[in-house]
Amino acid sequence: MRSNYKPLGNYIKEVNNRDTKLEVDLLLGVSIQKKFMPSIANTIGTDMSTYKIIKRNQFAYGPVTSRNGDKISIALLEDYDEAIVSQAYTPFEVTDLNLLLPEYLMMWFRRPEFDRYARFKSHGSAREIFDWAEMCNTLLPIPSIAKQREIVKEYNTFVNRIKLNQQLIQKLEETAQAIYKQWFVDFEFPFDFAQGKPDENGLPYKSYGGEMVESELGVVPDKWKYEKIGSYVKLSQGLVVNATTNHLLKPTGIPLLRITDLINDTKEIFIDQSVDKKNIAKKEDIIISRTGQVGLVFRNKEGVIYNNCFKITPNEKLVQKEYLYWFLRQKNTFNSMVELASGSSAQFDLTHTAFNTLPFIIPSIEIQSNFSKIIKPFGNHLDLVYNENKILYNMKYVLLSKLATIEN
Questions:
Q1: 253 near 235, Cβ under 8 Å?
Q2: Largest separation between any pair of C-alpha atoms in the chain
Q3: Is the full-model pTM beyond 0.85?
């Protein structure tokens, strides 16, 4: 053991203050993402005076580890002065801030190695528990307080940049959605009335008297079509992985794109190169989820599509990919896909047949082309920011992994 590794119990103590006077209203839980979150528990009829008070810079963790997969529910309260948590949690605090920074300790708890350690040290029959004694026996490097501040500052540089990028992503998304609404919901796409054709530098179509006609959708611009989407796109359902296809699984190769991989940008399962090309998504392809979490839309993902997703290929003579992508990203479109799905809320299934009946409004290809010219830079910028965040996340976890080798 390195000389600067110390038992955590030398630096922390349990906190057990109950809200006996019912003075604290904010009830929080702890997620496996190691964050405090507003509790969704039904507390009607519950004696809240038994709940525990937790204050800023204190921790809380759930000792029961057998229900969380490989993650330990533990978090540091940083966003509130005080809150209450369930009796199921164990709150604790650092005893001397001149010896150990709570932020530094929380970095140690964020390490995947800590999760594995806590699971390994958990014990019990009906349920496994990482108890307070095991928490106190945890060994970790405790460098000088100056070194801890330096490490925390470096870590927060990554965290703050990621947050800033997330805010930028949200603004770019909102702007792109606003442009889509202006053109294809409010029908204020730019139009050159003198030439009688769409023009990206023209005037707003509807406000300046553009011709409108009745349709199933209501009043829409003249010559726009309102039909079912199945006539304009081709669906490719993803690969079924079972006993008959397990021979395709390899330690390396093309990543399998499950919904969880699409959301979290993970690569955990790989498929042999000989897989059917219809199951492979390229960077420019559009993917939607079709089971469980129906209607999530992705692009710029490369790999083998899993069976819970569709790859959507438009007839590009009639529908451009940029227009189709942002149409699918609309809230109304999402709601329609959920309504078309069958099954229970936990097992929704959007079939080929159901998806093909999705109502679809088709502007002229000229309008779609002009929209693509304007909207594509937003997509390109989004891709750059997403990729930067991926790099920052990786660097953040490299820093966490290096904590084990920290010396003064």
A1: no
A2: 81
A3: no
User: How would you write the pLDDT of the chain (408 residues) with one tens digit per residue?
Assistant: 467 899 999 999 999 999 999 999 999 999 888 999 988 777 788 889 999 999 999 999 999 887 766 788 999 999 999 999 999 999 999 999 999 999 999 999 999 999 999 999 998 877 889 999 999 999 999 999 999 999 999 999 999 999 999 999 999 999 999 999 999 999 999 999 999 999 988 999 999 999 999 877 788 898 898 889 999 999 998 888 877 787 788 888 899 999 989 988 888 889 887 788 888 999 889 999 998 889 999 998 999 999 999 999 999 999 999 999 999 999 999 999 999 988 755 678 899 999 999 999 999 999 999 999 999 999 899 999 989 998 999 999 999 999 988 776
Strands 190-192 and 203-204, by their bridges, are antiparallel
Tokens of 117: 């350690």
Q: Given the structure tokens 């199951």, which residue do they identify?
A: 279
